[in-house]
Write a structure and sequence with these properties.
The protein is an alpha+beta fold. The chain is built from four helices and four strands. The chain is elongated. 11% of the residues are buried.
Length: 195
């Protein structure tokens, strides 16, 4: 076939395809239906001004939930270890009774309760005002200080703590830095487990 004839056939095929595609669209009399959203589930705008800005409270008691409303800590169950160790050598009956009596004499293993964190306890006060004053001074030093109420021997104490930190090494670093900053106040902190 001649090269020019091939080009004419390809051009004619393209033109026929374009006519088949676009002419029916131009001659179509069906109206275009607009498919828009007319109703939504978005509530109407409030009539009054509303601010979603969170305003911090001046009352530090809101940060510490009352003891009766604190979540219950459920002890974790220890997984049962399957015996996948190699065969153990046979032991005598006397050795078995010795190990059984030693196991009975040993204190029961306490399961770990929740996740343990660490805080630095700076002081314990019988006066709430003194504890609140120290909390505000420590917060000005850019530490996360809080106050915790505790009843000891029928007396109410207010403990000032900083933290918590999950890693004990980070808690030790925080203790060192905090003790340097608290030196002018003649206070020295100590690491305690939390909660």
């Amino acid at each position: 076939m001649d090269e020019g004839l091939k080009k004419r056939l390809v051009g004619a095929t393209v033109l026929v395809s374009l006519v088949v595609i676009f002419v029916p669209m131009l001659l179509d009399d069906d109206p275009v239906i607009e498919t828009g959203i007319y109703k939504t589930n978005i509530p109407p705008m409030p009539e009054r001004d509303y601010s979603s800005r969170v305003v911090p409270s001046d009352d530090d008691n809101l940060a510490i939930p009352p003891a009766e409303r604190r979540p219950e800590i459920v002890p974790l169950k220890r997984p049962v270890a399957s015996d996948t160790s190699p065969a153990k050598p046979a032991t005598s009956a006397a050795q078995n009774t010795n190990t059984e009596s030693a196991a009975a004499d040993a204190p029961p293993v306490q399961p770990r309760v929740g996740l343990t964190a660490w805080v630095v306890q700076v002081g314990s006060f019988s006066s709430r005002e003194n504890a609140e004053k120290l909390v505000s001074q420590i917060r000005e030093m850019k530490y996360a200080a809080f106050m915790e109420q505790a009843d000891v021997d029928g007396k109410t104490h207010f403990r000032v703590k900083v933290g918590p930190e999950i890693d004990h090494k980070l808690a030790e670093k925080m203790l060192t830095k905090l003790n340097k900053d608290l030196k002018p106040l003649n206070l020295k902190g100590s690491i305690k487990s939390y909660p």
